[in-house]
Amino acid sequence: MVSKSSGWAQTQRKPSNSEPLYRRALDIRQAALGADHPDTSSSLDSLGRNYFDQNKYRDAEALFRRALTIREKSLGAGHPDVARSLTNLAAVCYGQKRYVEAESHYRRGLAILEESLGRTHPEFAASLENYAEILRKLKRKEEAIEVEGRVSDLKRGLRRSRIFIGPDVNNGLRAP
């Protein structure tokens, strides 16, 4: 219930109001499941997203790194949740204008998503789109254009398949 309440507060675009609820959900999961349980990493991720929405990038980054460590150990390096942690880290780096580091996280996350979910999965397409944005920030226009072309082709194919790419699919966080 705590998690649902915090999600509702987040959708109301009041991240500071939902922060205590995310903290409480994390405390409950840690007490019930342990600090290294994959479900605890999900609570870390949720609180990290909340911090990100408040532009508390250092706090968000610490939680995303901790979630990544838990997920790598418990789920394996090739699990899609590991990729989601990497794209979250990339978004934090992007928000702090650490574009080289963001690109590295996105590249690694994309490789995992491609291997685990496939090149035609909406989540892969959304992360690829974010990667193109990083390439533009790094002044690598030709690469960005090539990646954007791939994204466009993927979106076209997904629309034909009636698969939606939107905020619920895009696990990478956009910097404000």
Coarse morphology = globular
Structural class: mainly alpha
**Total of helices:** 8
Q: Termini separation (Å)?
A: 29 Å
Proportion in helices: over 70%
> Please, what is the average pLDDT?
87
Q: CATH H-level name of the largest domain... which superfamily?
A: Tetratricopeptide repeat domain
CATH class annotation of the largest domain:
Mainly Alpha
Q: What's the CATH architecture name of the largest domain?
A: Alpha Horseshoe
Which fold name is given in CATH as the topology of the largest domain?
A: Serine Threonine Protein Phosphatase 5, Tetratricopeptide repeat
**Overall number of domains:** 2
* SSE string: HHHHHHHH
β content, as a range? under 5%
Number of DSSP strands? 0
Radius of gyration: 16 Å
Low-confidence stretches: 1-11, 167-173
Report on the architecture of this protein.
Residues 1-11 and 167-173 have low confidence and may be disordered. This protein folds into 2 domains: 1-75, Serine Threonine Protein Phosphatase 5, Tetratricopeptide repeat, CATH 1.25.40.10; 89-176, Alpha Horseshoe (Serine Threonine Protein Phosphatase 5, Tetratricopeptide repeat). Helix 1 (2-11) runs antiparallel to helix 2 and helix 5 (80-95) runs antiparallel to helix 6 (99-116). It contains 8 helices and no strands. The chain has helices at residues 2-11, 15-33, 38-53, 57-75, 80-95, 99-116, 122-137, 141-160.
Describe this protein with a few key phrases.
mainly alpha, 76% helix, globular, 2 domains, 176 residues, Serine Threonine Protein Phosphatase 5, Tetratricopeptide repeat
